Amino acid sequence: MAIILASSSPRRKELLRKSVSSFDVIPANIDESVKPKELPKTYVARMAKEKALAIANHHPDDIVIGCDTSVIIGNSILGKPGNDTEARFMLKRLSNLTHQVLTSVYIKTPDKVYQKTEVVQVKFYPLSEADIDAYLKTGEHQDKAGAYGIQGKGALFVKEIKGDYYSIVGFPIGFVHQVMKDIFDKE
């Protein structure tokens, strides 16, 4: 039984290596559109599940891990910015506020499903135009929900975290590791 990560995220790959030494990576190619009136927590859980099932349908005898992360202000989902203007707008919205980072993981085995959605509170310091300009020049905001990476220079903006740090990075490794122990201790 192989383990498959349904993601091309280098951060998720790095974190999964902490728990298991061997796994395959097969990114799921799905429609990630938000449905009308869909709540953020429902959205991230649905995305993680759809990513896992898109791969599990072709690999029914394997363990497939799907994940999704979104940055939330109120009920607004801040996805990955399409350009620097969108990233600037997102960072201005996050400045001096507490927002949520939701990460859902869906693990499909041949005979069982494990799913969990982590909700983490993140408070930012006030960000000046100079702070935002300097950060955008790093390029780190690209391909990151909410236009920042907490594992990089985005950490400089964070005043306080309540919850699982690794869920902010995009992969709740503690939960995944416990699931892997549960699966393989039964074999």
From TrEMBL:
Cellular compartments annotated: Cytoplasm
Catalytic reaction(s) noted: UTP + H2O = UMP + diphosphate + H(+); dTTP + H2O = dTMP + diphosphate + H(+)
Enzyme Commission code(s) on record: 3.6.1.9
Keywords: Cytoplasm, Hydrolase, Nucleotide metabolism
InterPro entries on file: ITPase-like_fam, Maf-like
Names of required cofactors: a divalent metal cation
Entries under NCBIfam families matching the protein: maf (TIGR00172)
Protein name: dTTP/UTP pyrophosphatase
Gene this protein is translated from: maf
